Amino acid sequence: MNHVRLNHAQSNLHTTKLATALLLLGGLLSTASLVYYQQVATKAERLQEELQQSTQHAKKLKVSSNSSSASQQNNAKQAAKTSEINAAISSILLPWPAIFKALEVATPDEVKLLALEPSSKARNANERGFRVTAVTLNADTMMAYVDVLTQQKLVNNIVLLSQESTELNGQAAIQFVIETVWKT
Asked: For 93, which of 30, 31, 37, 148 is 20 to 30 Å away at the CA?
């Protein structure tokens, strides 16, 4: 009998050629990717340096052109801050006890004061005003209160800023805001 040799495994030569071809193809693709990455990175660095140089140049031009105007702006800002601080201090330094006493005398029982605060709208440094927020049940009482305040010797230029309908303990009421200047 003849012996037949059965070998079901593939030959090593065929797999070696395929593996070598794939290895070479992968190496070429990796090398091409690396070269492309280096070109992109170099270009990005160049663009970043140009951007930094242009911003530095722009800052130098801006600083040199604005050096005199910057000092003028700083002086103007400082003067504005100083005047705001002085206005705030003068509004705080109102003679509050005398104001409270004048309002106590002028305020009838029908008018309930809600707030009393310094006014931020002084027309000049000598004027110091305050704002009164109050509530009453009818418009006649509100107008009578404003009239009584205008007759006070210590206040000047009383202005009714706003009025709105509201509800107080289930009853219709009027909340109003008046502003006045304290006589100095």
From this structure: 148
